[in-house]
């Protein structure tokens, strides 16, 4: 694996998941793979899980890490070409990416959708600029359109807990006070379909995801109906794609509640976290024995570790 920007960088998905589950059984087997190598984690937005699970994954591989919080520590970056840099942005991505790539063997970046301009977010300007100007392999830690490390952790979690070969997985929109990106939902939908699971997406009208993310999933506007027979309920809020970045509904009836879970096939509950309790999901659901939110977050270590393993192996073979 040269870089990890999206599902497109995965050659063999079942093999990647199998490898992650093997690593989880014995996380220190490849502790020499990262020796004398280093990774820079660049954050343009906050993080708990991605930051710490990435450092833990690197630690397990003997890889050193440095963290740059662009918001509080770095110069504000300009991504547009040909502009006169006479505003608040002190450094251009052309120099920043080239410099960081000259210091480190692997570079990982988090840059959320700004939700102001759909074309800009969906062009993946930040990830693509890093890929273009940084000589080191690049890893997506949540970008304008996707969160592939999360989707891989979700897939690992479902593989561990499924009781049938092709489980019914339901991605449900849930209310939130703020406008959130579509990234997690986009990636989850793509990865679940790549894994050949039976995916239903449920949301109020106006919250349709981009066509490439919906793919062949069933779209059901009646949440109660969508929940019927589900093996996994995956809750997430996202803002509108068609009326870009807007909050069209805060309807509390879309919250995941214990009463609704009764319609499922004793489904397990999932969420990428952080989650707003009693806004997205009722305490009774997230605190139930069917909740997988903590094992799911734990698997973020192994999704990053398997990606790093494949990238480090590629670096080794190309030198
Ligand atoms: N990394 C996983 C989710 C990150 C982000 N959530 C958030 O910003 C939640 C913020 C809040 O609840 O205020 C998102 O939806 O893409
Ligand atoms: N799920 C996830 O990416 O969490 P953080 O935003 O805390 O990294």
Structure, explained:
This protein has a five-stranded parallel β-sheet. A four-stranded parallel β-sheet has the order 2-1-5-6, sandwiched between helices. It has 319 residues and is α/β, with parallel strands linked by helices. The mean pLDDT is 97. α2 (49-60) links the parallel β1 and β2 (64-69). α1 crosses α12. The chain has helices at 13-25, 49-60, 93-103, 118-122, 125-133, 148-161, 183-194, 211-214, 223-227, 258-261, 283-286, 293-318; strands at residues 38-43, 64-69, 77-78, 91-92, 106-110, 138-140, 168-173, 198-202, 218-219, 232-236, 268-270. Bound molecules: N~2~-(3-carboxypropanoyl)-L-ornithine and phosphoric acid mono(formamide)ester (CP). Residues 142, 178, 180-181, 183-184, 272, 274, 276 line the site of N~2~-(3-carboxypropanoyl)-L-ornithine. It is an enzyme of class 2 (transferase).
